[in-house]
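Format notes (please read before filing issues)

Several people have asked whether sequences and structure tokens are stored in separate files. They are not. Every record keeps both together, in the order shown below: the sequence lines, then the token lines. Line labels are part of the format and must not be stripped during preprocessing.
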Amino acid sequence: MKIKGLLVSSCLALGVLAGCSGDLNVSAEEIITNVLEADKELKSYYAEGEMKFFEGDTLKEAHLMKEYVNENGKKKVMIIDKNTKNETVSVNDGKELITYDKKENKAFKIDVSSLDLPEKTQREQLIAMMEALKDTHNYEIIGEEKVNGFLTHHVKLIPKEKKSLLGEMEFWVDQKTWFLVKSISTVGENRSEIVYTKLDTSTKFAEDTFKINLPKDVEIKNIDEDLGQRIGTIQDAEKGLGKPFLVFDEEDLTFSGVEILETKGEINRTEVSMNYLKEGNPQLNLSIFPAPEGQGMEIAYNGLKVRGNNAEYMEEIDALSWDEDGLRYSILINNPDLSLEDVMKMTEKMKLSSSK
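Then the structure lines:
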């Protein structure tokens, strides 16, 4: 499996979503509210399942999966390609995420200690996702169904727009443990399925469960170093982009630092990322990189403009993008209380970084 597919599959397995609750005669919104008040939490378990990826009706990939999660948030996933029999192992111990490909004898390492990610249960992740999609998707409660011996609630999320970035999703949630037994995601002709066949919530894991014993001759790649990611200054960012760039007025927001990402290979670009806070709380993430060139890469006019430029808003992920003076600006809205209109007003007050 190539690195991109390997990492995507590993991240899916290590961060799989689960959890739902409530009376099937009430709305999905009421179900979410009931789940928030539920006592059940699945923090430690061993599970086995299968992942499948389709293009149309054609099965492109199929993988067996074993998943270990302890109460401290450590996770280990073993994935076996049913076709090639190759095995990959991924472990997240809270400090590093390491993925090892046995056939290639290569390991990929990512530092996750500085990410400060909130520890959310699977139930909490699903609730957060459903809340985020309530404006872009309609919910349908299909009913109770048995899946591999689990009695589940079947919930369907249907996009309101045809060209949805996230597409249609279905979840089958175990009523006893609120574990996500089965999920299907369909975007265009592509469909992914994850189905669990076994769940053990009583297993006690030895400490070495969440360690990878790598061969002495293994090739280890540090993904952070390969990406060229570093913390820098506004001046460093200007140098990387080759020109000054727009930043938010600090009367409205305070930026908490600059990250500079220098990717090589096919993309081969410098990207600047800035997180903005207000009273210590995350508000926005601003990313800037050279505007992509080529047919179909420009942002077409669809009724939205920012600072006089054609703009695109992806409601599902609360992201606003536009091109200006050879740079593409992308804003990810982190504060749910900030509306698109609020952010667009802030963009009108943006200033060039060299004026800071």
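For reference, the curators noted about this record: Residues 3-223 form a domain with the outer membrane lipoprotein receptor (LolB), chain A fold (CATH 2.50.20.10). Helices lie at 3-14, 28-36, 122-132, 223-227, 234-241, 340-347.
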